[in-house]
Amino acid sequence: MQVLNRRLIRMIWNTRGQFLALIAIVMLGVLIYISMTTAYMNLSRSQQSFYQENEFADYFLHVVKAPEAEIKRVANIPGVVQVTGRIQKDISFIKADGGRGTLRLTSYKLPVEGELNQIQVDSGRMFAREGGQGIEVLVDPKFAAANRLKPGSLIKVIAGSREVSLNVVGTAVSPEFIYLMKDSASLMPEPEEFGVLMMPHENAEQITDMQGQINQFLLKLVPGADEEEIKEQAEAILEPYGNLAAYNRDKQLSHLSLKGELEGLRVSSRFLPLIFFLVAAGIQFLLLGRMIKAQRSSIGVMKALGLGNMRIVMHFLSYPVCVSLLGSLLGSIFGIYLASIFSQMYAMFFNLPASIGGINGTAILYSVILTLLVGISSGLLACRGILLIQPAEAMRTAAPVGGGSIALEKLSFFWNSLNSAWRMSLRTMFRNRTRFAVTVLGVAGTVVILLMAFFSSDATDYMMERHFSMENRYDFRVTFNAPLKQSDITYWQQWEEIEAMEASLQVPIKVSKDFSGSDEKIRSEDDSLQGLRVGQKLLGIYLADGQELQVPENGVLLSERTAKKLAVQVGDWIWVESKMGVGPSHQARLKVTGIPQALLGGGSYVSLETANRLLGESRLFNSLLLKIDTAKSEQFKNRLKNMTAISSVLSRTKERANWDKMMESMIFFIGVMILFGGVLGLVIIYNSSLMNFNERKKELASLRVIGFTRQEIGNLLFKETAVQAIAGIIIGLPLGRWLGGLYIGAVSTDLYTMPVIIYTQSYFIVAGCTIIFILAGFGLVLPKLKQIDLVEALKNQD
Amino acid sequence: MEKPVLMRLENISKQYHMGEVIVEALKETSLDIYAGELLVIVGPSGSGKSTLLNLVGGMDKPSSGQIFFNGKELSVAGDQDLTMYRRQEIGFVFQFYNLIPDLTAAENVALAAELVEEPLTVDEALQGVGLLERSRHFPSQLSGGEQQRVSIARALVKKPHFLLCDEPTGALDYQTGKSILGLLDRVKNMGTTVIIVTHNTAIAAMAERVIRMRSGDIIEVLVNENPLPPERIEW
Ligand SMILES: Nc1ncnc2c1ncn2[C@@H]1O[C@H](COP(=O)(O)OP(=O)(O)O)[C@@H](O)[C@H]1O
Ligand SMILES: [Mg+2]
C-alpha cells in the first residue's frame, strides 16, 4: 500500500500548518505530563525508599524528660512494633560572624542499625563515640553548605551556659529532615539559621545534661493500628514525665511539606496535560472530519476500487497516529529535560540521599499510550463518516450546505439590529457548533492555564504581603533560652536603635472544647499560644476577611485551624492546658472572642497576663518583638552577638531575602506556564480560523466578486474569531477561579492554606494576554486572504 | 440611434502560466461595449468567454492591452480600485448562484446593498425578480431557478452599470432557464448593460449583439437588428 502512504504524506503536506500546530499541542501536553510525572514518581519513590530503608517512624511522642527504661513499657503497648528513644533539643550555635542560630540536637544510639529514624551519611563519615578528639557530629547538608562546614570543621554550640566546640565529621540525611523548617510558623528552610546536629546518644546526654534520660519516643506501629488508642495508653504511661506532644507522620513537618509538594505535582500532572490533550483531540476530530468530507469522492473511488472500510479508516487514522507519535517523541525529549530542572530544584530544597533525577520509562510509556489513545479515539469518531459513504454516491457532488435559522433569532430586537454580515457569522458559527465549542473550550483552557500561573504568583504575593507587612511588623524577634522577668526589659530599653518593643510569652498548649454538661468525647488539639500586650502593635492579627483583631483582656483568639478541628465558634468556651515542660501543667477555661486566620503557621493569642496565669506565673516573657531604626540595624546585630541568653533571632529582612531567592525559581515556572498557555491559545485560534477560511474559500471569493475588500473579508473572519475568543475568555475566567479553588483544596496541608487570591488586575492581564495570543494565531491565517482567487468563485465544480 | 460606449477594450490579451505551459486564454482583441445593450458571448467551452467577462468585471487584469471604463483606465487600476469598481459598477450572476448559505434570500440581497451608498431597497430588488414572498427562505429551501433569481436581485440591488452573467442558465432546466433569460431581458430594458456568456448558441437570438469566440479569439461580432423575445427562443 505504498500509494496510500504517499497519499498520507501528501495529506500531511497539504495541512502542514495544522499538522505542526497539532504536534505542538500534543508535545506540550506530553512535556508537562512527563516532566511532572517524572518529578512526582522520582520524588515519591525516593521518599518511599528512604522512609523504608531508614525506618521512618509512624508515631511520635514528646515528653519533658523520661527515664530510658520507659522505652520498654511503651514498646509493650499492643500495636507498637518497635520504639526508639532519643534526645532532641534545640540549642544555640555561634555562626562564623558571631551571630546566633539554632541547631536541633538529635541523639543516636550506636550502632544506628535496627533503630527508627536512622541517618544516612551523605558526605564524610559516621561519627564515633567520643574518643580523645572531642565530640564528633554530623550536620544536614544544607546547613553545612550554608555555614561552610566541611568534615574537619569545628562548630561552636552553647550547652547550658558553656560554649562547646564540636568536630564536624560529615553530613547526613534522615527521613524526618527532608524538608527542614524550624517550626510550622517558618516560611521556608533557612539553612543559615537552622539545621540538624546529629551526635552519639552519650554525648547528647552530656551536652543536654540528661544522663539516662530521653525526651522523645519514636514508634513503629503495626499496619492499621488504632493510633488514638495507642496515644491514650502511651500518654497514660508517660503522664508523670510531662506529655508535650503526640502525633503521627501527618503532622510531622518534613513529611507534611513533602506531601504537599507531591500532592501538588500529582494534581497538576493530571490536570494540566488534560487541557492540552482535550484540545488536541478536539482539533484532530474536526480536522479529520473535514478532510473526510472534502475527500468524499476520493473515498468513493477507493471503495469502488475494492478497498475495504477498514483499510480506508486506517489510512485516515494514520494522520492522528503520526501526530501522536511525533508529539510524544518531541514531548518526551523536552519533558525529560524539564524533569531534570525539577530534580535540580528539589535537590536544592530537599535533603534527600541520592540524586532524584533520572528518566522515567513508565511516564514515557504512559504518555505515548495516552496520546495514541487521544489521537485514535478522536480519529475514529471523525472516521464514522467514511463508513456511510457509498461508492456510487461519492461520485455526486456533496449536498449543499443547509443554512437555517438559529435560536438567537428569537431575540428579535437584538437580531434585527444586526447587519447581514453579523447574521451570516453567527449562523455559520452555530452551524459549525462542534468547531465553535472546541474553539471556545480551547480558549477557555488557555485562560485557565494563564490564570493558574497568575494565581500562584498572586496568592504568594498576597501571602507575603500579609506575612511581611500586615502580620509581622517587627524587624527582629529575639527568643530567649529561658523566660525573663518584666524587669529585665529595662536592659533593652536603654538601646537607642530600638524604636519599639513588645514582649511576648509563647506557650505550647493543648486545646479542648468545653463540653461541661454533655458527655461528648473530649478531643484535644495541639496549638501554640502567644501572650501579647493588649493593644499590641508589632503583630497584626486578622480575620479571614482581613478585619484586624486586638488581643482580648480575658478571652482567647483561637487559631482558625484548631477552631475548625474542634468545631469551636466565637462565644464558645475552651480548655487550654500548658505544655511548657516546667512544673506541673496548668489549665484555664477561656472564652473564644475571635477566630483569626493566619496563612502561614499562626497560632492562638491571649493577653500577656492570661498567658502568665496559665503558667501559674506573672510578668514573664520569653521573646521580644523589636522594631529597629533601619540605619542602625548593624549596630543592633552586633549587640546581639554577645548575648548568651538568646536562643534565636529571627530577622525579617533575611527572611525576605530568602523568600525572594525561592521566588526566582517560581517565576521561571510561571513564565513557562504562560508560554505554554499562549501556544495553546495561538494554535486553537490558528486552527479554527484556518478551517473556517478553507471551508468558505468559495463563499469568500464570491463576496470579493460582489465588491467586498480584502480588509472587509478579514474583518468578517475576525469577528467570528473574536466572538469565540470572548466566549472562551468569559467562560475561562470563572472556570479558572473555580479550578484554582479546587486545586488549593486538593493540595492544602495542615501546614499552610494558600488563599485563593487572584488580583482583579490579573484577570485583565490574563484576558489581555489571551487576546494577544489569539491575535497572533489569527495573524498567521491573514496572509491566506491574499490567496483568495476571485476566478475560483466562478469555477463551476467545487 | 447610436448608444454611447461604456467600455472600451483595446488590444487586450490574457495568458495563464501553468508551470512550463503558457495557456493563451485570450489572444489580442479589441471590443467596445455600449451602454444599455444586451451582449451575448458564445463559443465552445475553453474558448475564452469567461476570461473576457472577468476582465470586463474587474476580477482579473489583462496580460497586455488597455481597458477603459467611462474614460478611466481599468487595466492599470490597483486591487483596491478594482474592488471599488466591482462594488459600484458590477453585478455578477454565477452559474451556480453562489448565494451565502447562512443568509436568507433577503439577507443575501441586503449584504450586497450594504456595500453601496444608494441601493435599491431589498424589497424592490426581490420584487423585481418576483421573489418577494420567499424573502425569508434560505438558499437550501429554494429551487435552482429561485436561487438564480435571488442571485440576480443581489446583483441588481447595487444599481450597477453592468450585469455580468456567466452561464446563468447552465444549471437550470429548459423552462426555468427561459424565464431567467426573460428576466435578464427586462433588466436590459430598464437600462442596465447586460452581458451573458453561454456555450448555448440559441441564446444568441435574444441579443442585440453577439460575439462569437473560438480558441481565445473573437471570430465574429454580429449585430442583431431584430432580437427575439426570450420566450420565443428554443433549443
Ligand atoms: N485560472 C486559470 N489558470 C489557467 N488556465 C486557465 C485559467 N482560467 C482559464 N484558463 C484556461 O484558459 C482558457 C479559456 O478559459 P475560459 O475563459 O474559462 O473558457 P470558457 O469560459 O470559454 O469555457 C481555457 O483553456 C482554460 O483552461
Ligand atoms: Mg466559462
Question: Which characteristics define this entry?
Answer:
heterodimer, A: 798 residues, alpha+beta, Cathepsin D, subunit A, domain 1, nine-stranded mixed beta sheet, 21 helices, 50% helix, B: 235 residues, alpha/beta, Rossmann fold, six-stranded mixed beta sheet, four-stranded antiparallel beta sheet, 27% helix, binds adenosine-5'-diphosphate, binds magnesium ion
Report on the architecture of this protein.
Chain A is an alpha+beta fold. Helices cover 50% and strands 19% of the residues of chain A. Chain A contains 21 helices and 22 strands. In chain A, strands 12, 13, 14, 17, 18, 19, 20, 21 and 22 form a nine-stranded mixed beta sheet that branches. In chain A, strands 3-4-9-6-8-7 form a six-stranded mixed barrel. A four-stranded antiparallel beta sheet of chain A has the order 2-10-1-11. Chain B is an alpha/beta fold and 235 residues long. Chain B has a single domain (35-63, 83-232), classed as P-loop containing nucleotide triphosphate hydrolases (Rossmann fold), CATH 3.40.50.300. Chain B has helices at 49-56, 79-89, 105-113, 122-128, 144-156, 174-189, and strands at residues 5-18, 21-34, 38-42, 64-69, 72-73, 90-93, 162-166, 193-198, 209-214, 217-223. In chain B, the strands form two sheets. In chain B, strands 6-7-8-3-9-10 form a six-stranded mixed beta sheet, with helices on both faces. In chain B, strands 2-1-4-5 form a four-stranded antiparallel beta sheet, covered by helices on one side. Chain B starts with a strand and ends in a 12-residue tail after the last strand. Chains A and B meet through α12 and α19 of A and α2 and α3 of B. Bound molecules: adenosine-5'-diphosphate and magnesium ion. Adenosine-5'-diphosphate (ADP) binds next to β1, β2 and α1 of chain B.
